[in-house]
Amino acid sequence: EEQQRNEAFEARIDAGDFIEAKDWMPEHYRKTLVRQISQHAHSEIVGMLPEGNWITRAPTLKRKAILLAKVQDEGGHGLYLYSAAETLGTSRDQMLDALHSGKAKYSSIFNYPTLTWADIGVIGWLVDGAAIMNQVPLCRCSYGPYARAMIRICREESFHQRQGYESLLVMMREGTAAQKAMVQDAVNRWWWPSLMMFGPADKDSPNSEQSMRWGIKRLTNDELRQKFVDATVPQAELLGVTLPDPDLKWNAQREQHDFGAIDWEEFWRVVGGNGPCNTERLGTRVKAWDDGAWVREAALAHARKRATEAQA
Ligand code: ACO
Fold first, then answer.
1. pLDDT per residue over 152-184, tens digit each?
2. Pocket of ligand 1 (CB under 6 A)
3. What average pLDDT does the structure give for the chain?
C-alpha cells in the first residue's frame, strides 16, 4: 500500500500538481520541505538585523522610511514562511528553539557586517537580487503553501532590490569621490558572499538531486548562480562599479559569463557558525526573544481572561 501511495504521489509530481497540506506525502518530502522552509524563515528574521542596524543612521527621512518598510517586510516574510512550515506539522516553538539553540541553519550572507551606509544599498542590489533569482522559481514549488507564500514575497523583494540599486545610482551619479569609493568598497565586500548565497556547487550539494526530482527546487544552485552573474554584470556597468573578480568575462561560446573560483572554505566556515558575525547575530536574536517574553505572557493572560469572560 505504501508503494502504491508513493507511486500516486510521484505521478502527481510528474503531472505538475500542487501538493497540499492535507495530502499524503512521503516522510522525506515533508522533512526536506520543513528543512528548507524553516531555514528560509530564519534567514528572513536574522536578515532583519544587519539592516536594522542602520535605521537610526539613515541619511534622510526618505531613506529611513524605505529602510523601515523593508526591514518590516522581511519580518513579514519570516512569518508567512513559519506558517507555511507549520502546515507540515512542525510547531513554531520547535523551529524557534532550533534557531535559538544554534542548531538550525540560516543564510550565510547575514553573518557579514554592515560597515557603511553604502552596504545598505548593496544589500538591496546584490543580496536581495540574489534572493529574487533563487526565489522566483520557488513560486512554482510543488508544495502549494510554500509556492503561494513565495509569490507575495517575490513582489516585495523586487521593491527591495530596486530601492537598493536606486540609492547606489544616486551615490554614484551625484555623490562625492568619497561616497563613490564607499560604494565600490561595499561591492568589493559583498560580491563573493552574494555568490555563496546560492549554496555549494551542484556536485557538492547533497539535497539538490532529490529536491529537483520533487519539484521543490526548479533550478540548481549553479544554474541560479550563473543567471545572477549574467544579470548583474550589466547593472554594475550602468552603475559604474567594478565587480572584484579578475576572471569575470563574457564567454561568447557559452553565451554566459565565466567567473573566478569561490572560496568554499570561507562558505563552510560561515555556515558552520564561524563567520564574522554569527555569534553577534544569534546573540541579538536570543536577546530579542527573551526581552519579548513579557509580551507573550501578557497576550496569553489576556486571551485566557477573554475566554473566561466569554464562558461567564
Ligand atoms: N547559507 C547557509 N546554509 C546553506 C547555504 C547558505 N547560503 N546554502 C546551502 N546551505 C546549506 C543547506 O541548507 C544544506 O544544509 P542542510 O542539509 O543541513 O539543511 C547544505 O548547505 C547543503 O546545501 P544543498 O544540498 O545545496 O541544500 P539545498 O538543496 O537546501 O539548497 C538553498 C540550498 C539553495 C539555499 C535552498 O535551500 C533554497 O533555495 N532555500 C530557499 C531560499 C532561502 O532560504 N533563501 C535565504 C536567503 S535569501 C533571504 O532570506 C532574503
1. 999 999 999 999 999 999 999 999 999 999 999
2. 35-36, 39-40, 43-44, 47, 105, 107-108, 131, 134, 196-200, 205-208, 211, 217, 221, 271
3. 97
Strands (E), the chain: 249-251, 256-258
* Amino acid code (one letter) for 269: R
Residue 310, pLDDT above cutoff 90: no
Nearest to 130 by CA among 211, 40, 225: 225
For residue 312, what pLDDT is reported? 75
Counts for the chain of helices (H) and strands (E), in that order = 14, 2
Cα separation, 120 vs 70, whole angstroms: 11
Q: Of the residues 31, 49, 81, 105, which should be mutated to test ligand 1's pocket, given the most ligand atoms within 8 Å of the CB?
A: 105
Per-residue cell: 178: 568619497
253 alpha carbon – ligand 1 mean position (Å): 31
131 CA closest ligand 1 atom index: 48
User: In the predicted model, is pLDDT for residue 2 greater than 90?
Assistant: no
Q: Which three cell numbers stand for residue 247?
A: 576572471
The residue whose CB lies within 8 Å of the most ligand 1 atoms, and thus the one to mutate among 71, 271, 281, is 271
Residues in the chain: 312
Residue 223's pLDDT is 98
Q: What is the pLDDT of residues 204-213, one digit of tens each?
A: 999 999 999 9
- The answer to whether residues 87 and 21 touch, using CB atoms and an 8 Å cutoff, is yes
Q: What is the pairing mode between strands 249-251 and 256-258?
A: antiparallel
